[in-house]
Amino acid sequence: MEVKTIAVIGAGTMGRGIAYASALAGYRTVLEDISEARLEQAVAWIEKAFDEGVSRGKVDPVDRLAAMKHLTTASKVENAIREAELIIEAVPEEMEMKLELFTIFDKFAKAGAIFSSNTSSLSITEISEVTVYRERCIGMHFFNPVPKMKLIELIKAPQTSDETIATCREVGRRMNKDVVVVKDSPGFITSRVSALISNEAFALLETDIASARDIDKALRLGLNHPMGPLELADLVGLDVCFKVLEYLHQTLGEKYKPSPLLQTYVEEGRLGRKSGRGVYDYPQQEILSHMK
Ligand SMILES: NC(=O)c1ccc[n+]([C@@H]2O[C@H](COP(=O)([O-])OP(=O)(O)OC[C@H]3O[C@@H](n4cnc5c(N)ncnc54)[C@H](O)[C@@H]3O)[C@@H](O)[C@H]2O)c1
Questions:
Q1: From the CA of 181, how far away is ligand 1's center (Å)?
Q2: Is 121 helix (H, G, I), strand (E, B) or coil?
Q3: Residue where a domain terminates, one of 183, 203, 226
Q4: What is the CA radius of gyration of the chain?
Q5: Dihedral of CA 69/27/102/144: which sign?
Q6: Over the stretch 82-103, which tens digit does the pLDDT of each residue have?
Q7: pLDDT category, 191, cuts 50, 70, 90?
Q8: Do strands 86-89 and 137-141 pair parallel, antiparallel, or not at all (unpaired)?
Q9: pLDDT band at residue 289, thresholds of 50, 70 and 90?
Q10: From CA 109, how far away is CA 71, in angstroms rounded?
Q11: Using alpha carbons only, what angle is made at residue 105 by residues 101 and 109, rounded to the nearest 5 degrees?
Q12: How confident is the prediction for the chain on average, in pLDDT?
């Protein structure tokens, strides 16, 4: 089925970025969130991201105008998905929330629509079990910040059809992203590897083997990572990192047990950039530009 309209459910860090990429690729894009305030912030963020794209010469002003025309918002999921051939769910990393939404997709989506989740780690097989047409369920794992990051991991559950993969591959191509295909397994490729790296970085910090700045510097300059693992954890959100590690610990074993320091930070509300404090402190200005 040709994709003309994409519905993005959840307008947080990821949903707004996915809506940006979708509208820029020429898809009619409907962005939905249960929070009206979140939705307004998301549209402002998308406009600002387009402004930055134009000023850096990455986005043609004509494409920016067309993209903003393609973008609409909805405040009810049933309305958002009605016309969509592809639905991308980007609500928090809670299995219950995802199951609830996929049940709604199953009831109200257009016949033949593909249902995808942007989950960082959860089982697509389990999510798809609440739907009738499991061959049209897939994981589409985008990366933060979506406008800049080139990869989409496509997660293939046992029943995901080749046609569904081909359609999502084409959507990725039009969004100017590269795609890898992974069999459904906890954390896929990227979250599984990066969870171990960041957990190890927290273990180094906790045992006072090096400072946070030196741990990050060592991985940037010595291992050629574009960002240090602690900076990256602050960008992703320490709560998100913690949830991913907890899930990998339950499903893959002891080596993924979340570092006690990471747990303490999350319990203290040190969630990273979005809360103004994580491993590092962030001035008010930076928090606003991250959220808006
Ligand atoms: N943050 C990252 O770097 C990152 C990277 C890749 C994947 N992910 C995954 O993407 C998903 C979203 O993460 P995020 O960081 O964007 O979360 P977020 O908390 O920034 O945003 C989630 C949004 O979903 C909304 N929401 C909650 N319940 C909803 C519902 N029933 N219907 C509609 N909207 C609802 C919230 O109001 C919020 O705006 C998670 O599964 C996460 O694991 C996150």
A1: 22
A2: coil
A3: 183
A4: 19
A5: negative
A6: 999 999 999 998 999 999 999 9
A7: very high
A8: unpaired
A9: low
A10: 19
A11: 155
A12: 95
What's the CA-to-centroid distance between 77 and ligand 1, angstroms? 14
pTM: 0.92
Assigned token pair, 108:
């109200």
Spatial neighbors of 205 by CB under 8 A, at least 6 apart, are 211, 212, 215, 230, 261, 279
* Alpha carbons 105 and 234: distance in angstroms, whole number: 32
Q: Which two tokens stand for residue 201?
A: 């970085």
User: Strand 71-74 to strand 86-89: parallel, antiparallel, or no bridges (unpaired)?
Assistant: unpaired
The better pLDDT of the pair 126, 288 is held by: 126
Closest CA to ligand 1's atom 18: 12
Residue 138 lies in a domain: yes
Whole-angstrom distance, CA of residue 112 vs CA of residue 174: 20
Tokens found for residue 33: 């969130």
The domain of 196 spans 191-279
Tally of CB atoms within 10 A around 206: 13
For 222-261, how does the pLDDT look when each residue is reduced to its tens digit (9 = 90+)?
999 999 999 999 999 999 999 999 999 999 999 999 999 9
Per-residue pLDDT tens over the stretch 51-74: 999 999 999 999 999 999 999 999
- Residue that terminates a domain, selected from 157, 183, 209: 183
Q: Could you give the number of structural domains in the chain? A: 2
Other C-beta atoms closer than 10 Å to the C-beta of 107 total 11
pLDDT given at position 1: 81
Residue list, ligand 1 pocket, CB within 6 Å: 9-15, 32-35, 38, 77, 90-93, 97, 101, 118-120, 141, 143-144, 236-237, 240
Contact 18, 142 (CB under 8 A): yes
My answer on whether 261 and 237 are in the same domain is yes
